[in-house]
Amino acid sequence: MNVANANRRICSRVQTRNRTNVHISRSIVASLLILFVRAFAQEQTVVRNQDAVASSVTDKERSFWSFQPLKEVAPPPVQNKAWPRTPLDHFVVAKLEERGLTPNPPAHRGDLIRRVYFDLIGLPPSPEEIQTFIEDASTDAYERLVDRLLNSPHCGERWGQHWLDVVRYAETEGFEYDRNLPDGWRYRDYVIRSFNEDKPYDRFIMEQLAGDELAPDDREMQIAAGFHRLGPVRRNAGNQDVTSSRNEVLTERTDVIGAAFIGLTIGCARCHDHKFDPIPQKDYYRMQAFLASTEENDIDLATKAEHAAWKARTDEINKDIKDLKERLKGLKGEEAARMRQKIQETEDRLPPPLPALASVRDDEKQRTSIHVLKRGDWENKGDRVGMRGLEVLLSKGAAELPPETKHPRTALARWIADPSNPLTSRVMVNRIWQHHFGAGIVKTANDFGANGDRPSHPELLDYLANQLIAHGWRLKPIHRMICLSSAYQQSSRSPQAKTAGDPENRLLGHFGKRRLAAEEIRDAMLSISGVLNRKAGGPSVILPVDEELVSFLYKPSQWAVNSDKNEHYRRSIYLIAKRNLRLPFMEVFDQPALLTSCARRESSTHAPQTLELLNGQTANALAARFGERLVCEAGTDPAQQIKRAYWLAVGRAPQAKEMQLALQFLATQPLKEFALAMFNLNEFLYVR
Question: If you average pLDDT over every residue of the chain, what do you get?
Fold first, then answer.
């Protein structure tokens, strides 16, 4: 029964009553009629949800390239048959030949090993590793090197960071309070493990979107589902509007699912139909409906004994704090300042939170009723909707799932991870390509819609997407294919004659230079200084920063610096990701703000970067350790120190002019200043 039939039935009843001389004023009849129709419409929502939904996406809109099924493509024929090493090379050189261009010759082996080291593990090779590779004349030397790096535990640390950028990973919730997420680092370690194990990407999707539904009692799955807890959350004191806050959370979670997994800006359809893509506003809220019963779930991991000890210690310290605050009420001047310092020191003695993990669970009793919100205003509700994927990626008239569907996020994950979904595999292989070559086949990695970039090599994109699925959704075979290709092994030199026909190098006639990311710069400085702590996993590290920065936090105690200084030398991925305080060194080198999905980091160049490398605490402290290492390994001979410094910092011996200038410098300046200068070389900061 539909609303129109209900309308007729109600009118019939009113007419019957009129014929039996029951006199009701027209205004009352109209009011009752409206109420009956509204009530009946709400009751029939469940029924309509299970029926076919009228299509609002045209065939022309469905024909857009990224919404089309993956095409089975074969490597094209090429004239330069000697150049291709892997099938993907055929696609690259075919495009170059169309434009009358030729690819670059192979890179020097010293450049190549440094390139692949940073790409796969995010660390520089040692001088000994470089020299061994250069001198290895075997035909499979490079192939063995790639395999070794792909199997390194550092590979997950490098590629895990890329994923953490995409899902806007942070360990605090942002806004005013910036409250800590219970053991948020566990999700970071889960991601690193997944990349090291080469977990199938479709499984990776399923675990993050619905791990708690797939295996409610499995610790790893609970951690994976912490994906839904990564976004900023407003925790208001006092009169908190629960409905408004809930809407913010659902909106944020829905938006990142669209950006991260299917590369669409579905968030643009929250207030109205998408202006560029065929995503009706109803489709946005149908996607949101998959999350309607998802609630926070902080899982306590501590034993009863740990709880008792923690409470006893906390109560003892809190009593001391209370006594100190009472004494503070009658002191003044310098004595008051000393008392405040004492209070701060006492608060810093409070034990850290007990082990826990931030996850989610389904709570049907708390299910949010999902309506289309007019202009995105949670107070202005329109039609109620149920769960369904985006219409443009479904068959025409596909029905919404019934509201009683068990494990709704599992249904969402299966739709996204289905090999027939044309976006999922395309988006992921494009991310891999982007991080190897500096730009994706589609430059807008989070936007495969009409307002995004068009693919430079559409057939290659589909070839790689099909290869990903054919290899059981494993990523390392794709990495291997790319790294072993001639396209990847090209020289980075770009003669004007070649760049004139392709100024942005979209056709890959040479390998593009790139500046190291913030984490790579710091990790490389740690590595060549000889102090890198390669310890993996565990709670995040908090480094010392200027007290002025800490003072801006809601609670300065949120920034409790690790007392073990050896922890300060761990890789940058293990530093705390706090939304309201980024390390100045990381921020100045374009570390993302952790508020929204970062598809591709910017690589800016500005004066504060030089100031940080010349005057910053991090650079100067590590330059001192670098100088100590040079003395230890090269002795007191300046020439030997210079040679060792160049091999460590840029992977080669110094040229004659460089040696001359360095000797002149060291004649008047300390070794630490020379080490600092090495950190400022373009060749140290850039990969060729």
Answer: 91
